[in-house]
Amino acid sequence: MEPAANVLDLNQLRRSCSSCALYELCLPAGIGVDDLDRLDATVKDKRALDRGDMLYREGDPFEALYVVRSGALKTFVQNEAGDVQILGFHLPGEILGFDALATNLHVSQAEALERSSICELPYAKLQQVTSEVPALHRQLMRVISREVVEEHRHLVMMGRQQAQEQLASFLRSLADRYQRLHRDGSALNLPMSRYDIANYLGLVVETVSRLFSRMEEMGVLQVNRKSVRILRPELLAALCRSDAAPRRKDAG
Amino acid sequence: MEPAANVLDLNQLRRSCSSCALYELCLPAGIGVDDLDRLDATVKDKRALDRGDMLYREGDPFEALYVVRSGALKTFVQNEAGDVQILGFHLPGEILGFDALATNLHVSQAEALERSSICELPYAKLQQVTSEVPALHRQLMRVISREVVEEHRHLVMMGRQQAQEQLASFLRSLADRYQRLHRDGSALNLPMSRYDIANYLGLVVETVSRLFSRMEEMGVLQVNRKSVRILRPELLAALCRSDAAPRRKDAG
DNA sequence: CGTCGTTTTGACACGTTTCAAGTATAGTGG
DNA sequence: CCACTATACTTGAAACGTGTCAAAACGACG
Known about the structure:
The structure is a homodimer.
Chain A: H1 33-42, E1 44-49, E2 54-56, E3 64-70, E4 73-78, E5 84-90, E6 95-96, E7 109-112, E8 116-122, H2 123-132, H3 134-160, H4 163-180, E9 187-189, H5 194-201, H6 205-217, E10 221-224, E11 227-230, H7 233-240
Antiparallel strand pairs in A: 1-8, 2-7, 3-6, 3-8, 4-5, 4-7, 9-11, 10-11
Chain A binds a DNA duplex through helix 6.
C-alpha cells in the first residue's frame, strides 16, 4: 500500500501499476504483488487528454480498456437527431470502455472534462493475462457489474425522482466517490459544467442552476461555481428520498 | 394465436433447439447445424410460469440464462424505499439473466406478465460449450451488446423525450420486435399493464392512458384495452421525433 | 480591456402529476 | 352460469414542477 495522507500526490505516481497510487481502486485491487507485475506489463503508455479531447468515439474499434489516472471524463451516446445523453462521469481509478466488449466497436463516446491522464489496457494483452490470473478475471467482472448497477441507479433516478432529489442523489454519489479517493467528500470540485449535469439528469440548465441556489438557501450546500461544499450531509441525504412529496409512479 | 404459417405455432415447438421455431432469434442464430446439437444438450427442461410468477429475484445466485419461448416477462430493480423501476419487457426469442454475469448474483428481478414458457441455459454447461464453439461465444456477446444498446435507448427516451414521444418510441420498438417474430407489427397485443408502461417510461398511469386516447383521436392508433392497432405508422414515427416541440436539453 | 461562453435569475407558459370520480374488465365464489 | 368484488383503465379539473424565453452577472481568456 501507499504511504499515508494523500493518495493523489502526483509525485508518487510512477509508471507501473505496482506503484500506482490509485491501484487499490482499479483493476489490480486485491491482486497479489506477483500478479501485479504481470498486469503491469500489459499497461501501455499513458495517454494525456486535454479538455474536450475524445478518448474514443462511437464506432471506434475496441482496442483497450482505460483507467482514469487523473482528471475526469464523461461518456455519452448520441442519437440520429444528434441529441446527446450523458451516461456517466468518470473519476480517477474508474474504468471506461466496457461498452465495446460485446461488438468490438464502441457504442458510446468518451470525452475529457479537464486535462486528464489515462492508463491504457490493450484488450488483447489483458485477455491473455486474465486467462492466466483468475483473480484478475474476477476483479474485472466485479468492475463490470458496478457499471451495470450504476446504469440501473441512473434509470431509477431519471424515472422515479424529482429534479431536486436527482441533484441531491447525484451530489451524494460524487461525494462518495471523492471519499473513496481519500479526498474530502464534503468539498467537491465539479469537473463538469451545469449543462453536463442537467443533461445527465434529464433536465435543463436553468433548473439545475436554480436547484443549486435553492439548496444553498436551505443551508445544505455552499456553492461557488464549480466548487460545492456540503454543509449538511444529513439534510442532503434526506433530500434524496421522495417521502416528502411521494409520487405514485409505481408499477401495478 | 395459432394460424398455420405462424412461427409461434405451438405444434411446431419441440424439445430441442434445432427444431425450436424461434431458433433464428435467440442464441443459436447463425450457428451451424452440428453445433446446434451441442447447444441443444445444454438446454434444461423448460420452465412454465404463470402470470406474476418470478423467474428470478434480486440476490438469487446466477444459475442460468433464460430464453423466452412464449409469453412475456418484465425485468425490474427495486431500491431501498421499495420503488420499482422496470428495465425492460422481454418477448419470445429474447434472453434474460445477463445482469448476474458479473457478480454471480442477480441484481434485478424477472416476472412473467402472462403465462410463459422459458428455455433454461445452465451457465456452467453453457460456458463449457461456448469455450468449444467460438461462433456461439460471438453470438452470446452480440446478444449482450443488444442489451447495452437497449439500456442506452431507454436512458435517452427518459432523459430527452416528452411523454408522447416516449410512448410513440415504445410502441414502435414493440412493433419492430413483433415483426421480427413474424407477427403482425401493426396489431399489437400488449402483454403489460398501463401501470407497467407508465413505470417503464417514468410517467404515471393517467398520463399513459390519456396519451393512448390522444393518439387514437389523432388517428394514429386504434386502441382497445390491451389491443393496439397502428393505423398510421408514418405518423407514429413522426411522433417519436421532438422537432415539433424542440427541447434544448443538450449538453454544452 | 473587450468578447465569449457559462451561470444565474426572473416571469411566464406548458406538460405532467395529483386528486377525484366513474366505467369497463377479469377473476372468484356461490 | 351469474352476481359480485377487486382491479385495471379512463376521464376531468386543478395544482405543481419544470421548461421556455429573455436578460443580466460573472469569469475565463486572448
